[in-house]
Amino acid sequence: MSHSPHHSHGHEHAPAHEHDRDQAEILDLDAEVLAGHLASLADRLPVTTAPRRIVDLGAGTGAGTLALLRRFPGAEVTAVDVSAPHLHRLREKAAEAGAAGRVRVVRADLDADRWPEFGTPELVWASASLHHMADPAAALRRVHGLLAPGGLLAVVELAGFPRFLPADAPSEAPGLEERCHAALDRHHAEHVPHRGDDWGAALTAAGFTVEAEHTVTVDIGPPPTDAVARYALGSLRRLREGAASALTPTDLAALDRLLDTGSPQSILRRTDLGVRTERTLWAARRP
Ligand SMILES: C[S@@+](CC[C@H](N)C(=O)[O-])C[C@H]1O[C@@H](n2cnc3c(N)ncnc32)[C@H](O)[C@@H]1O
Question: 16 CA to middle of ligand 1, Å?
């Protein structure tokens, strides 16, 4: 899940294919590092009967799709995303998991006036994707219309992007990561206005009954695995894109040393990295 500090609106410093590739790498690492946490959220879905048809909206490279295929072995998942490379990667991962036959990918822009035909799913999953929608309230009303009566919508969102460095790091610019996030938050307030919305209230307004809200706290301590270090590197690279213009020269130089994989200060050489974040699940039923 984005979990990347980058998004589809506003600032596109890199060409689209590079953006997709970088985001895909972070989504894959996020899925790998947080697989257990995601599975625990999927386990907490208040399903009455195991769903047979599931739709994953804004599926990315398939973190949720794969977790749902494992959780519901009798189900087929339709994975929807606007990014063709992400969907390609998702199919590869489904094939590696031996589940290619249970996944259909649909490339679609969910901001468009019409959605493709998704059938009548009993479960719709939207993880870190609703806040990207131009009009999330309209998207929720459409999901309401799409679901089978009694069906569930699971919304997963993150309170903020993961933190990786200790608060007093790096030594030449302590607190750098928080300052980067503060800069990025100002940027996002402009470009991603729905980040941090009250999804419980939005779900109720769209006609759903919110049956459960669970937050899992992720706190993976040091020393970092290789995946955690690469996840930190990728995430801080994306953070730099949104935050650089608001950083002091000292902070930017310190950030660049962390991001320079050839430097002695490279984030890949740090043994004090962890992953601290939160994921919240809202499970909402169409009455
Ligand atoms: C942060 S990622 C989350 C991916 C995945 N759900 C996960 O949890 O790892 C957000 C995803 O939403 C997709 N997305 C953003 N806006 C979209 C739109 N208008 N229509 C379809 N997909 C969209 C992006 O391409 C990206 O894959």
Answer: 14
Please tell me whether residue 279 adopts helix, strand or coil conformation: strand
Give the separation between CA 81 and CA 95, rounded to whole angstroms.
18
Rounded to 5 degrees, φ, ψ at 169 are -105, 160
What does the pLDDT look like over 171-200, one tens digit per residue?
Answer: 999 999 999 999 988 887 777 777 878 899
Tokens coding 41: 């959220």
Tokens encoding 195 = 């980040």
- Cα(33)–Cα(235) distance, integer angstroms: 13
Task: For residue range 207-257, list pLDDT tens digits in order.
Answer: 999 999 999 999 999 999 999 999 999 999 999 998 999 999 999 999 999
Report the candidate in 157, 114, 110 with the shortest Cα–Cα distance to residue 8: 110
Which ranges in 115-248 belong to alpha helices (H)?
136-146, 176-191, 199-205, 226-243
CATH number listed for the domain at residues 16-165+193-223+277-285: 3.40.50.150
- For the chain, which residues make up each domain, given as ranges? 16-165+193-223+277-285
Residue type, 50: A
Atom of ligand 1 nearest to the CA of 20: 25
Instruction: State in Å: Cα 161 to ligand 1 middle.
Output: 15
Using the mean position of ligand 1's atoms as its centre, give its distance from the Cα of residue 170 in Å: 32
Question: Could you tell me the mean pLDDT of each successive run of 10 residues in the chain, 287 residues long?
Answer: 41 63 91 94 94 98 97 98 97 97 98 96 97 95 97 93 96 96 85 82 97 95 97 95 94 98 97 96 97
